[in-house]
Amino acid sequence: MAKTIALIPARGGSKGIPQKNIANLAGKPLLSHTIHAAQAAQIFDEIYVSSDDAQILTVAENNGAAIIRRHPDLAQDRSPTNPVIQECIEKQGLLGEDIIVLLQPTSPLRTAQDIKASLKLYLGHQDCHALNSVCAADNKYLYAYLGADPYLIPAMPEFAKISRRQDLPKIYSPNGAIYIFSVANFQRHQAIPDTKVIAYVMSEDESIDIDTPDDLKRAELHFSQRQRDLQ
């Protein structure tokens, strides 16, 4: 029987915010918000945190996640995520039909309901290769130009003559909160699939990605608002 696992990649050594993945947010380590959302979704056979960092792994275990001790070569500043996924597949003996839900800890406003709804959407599209979470982006960028050496060139000339912005198509930006794909499709692409990808749309507020101290402050404000809404 196919398994559904959550994989939370959380390396140490971040520069913008020291130990960003366990920085304090609303009284808890940043990482714990994603672990708790995954647990509350109640859809996973296992929840794994992949890290090279002892403190992060301790936080993961203390919050009920299984750990994968990441190879140091996969934890550098420019290390891509795909080899981390492959390491998980190999270490956990995952099979082709198993499903991986990748949850980045820097997206703490993604909820258990988002995780459940996105998996339901993914499973309802049997011909898709992957699901990515996105948020709406400003379609004015369809009017963008490339270079100026010496003349501007429309980046997307097919839209350059559309004068009313309301006539432009909607565009979306990946927010990094949720990626879903099967092991078979990951291995076929040797990466998170980028063909036949369906979208799970989230709001701009839910899509805050923690990269700077200001991002942490914004997320803190949203958590405070959620608490007030529940009272």
TrEMBL record:
Annotated coiled-coil segments of the chain: none
InterPro entries: CMP-NeuNAc_synthase (IPR050793), Cytidylyl_trans (IPR003329), Nucleotide-diphossugar_trans (IPR029044)
Protein name in the entry: Acylneuraminate cytidylyltransferase family protein
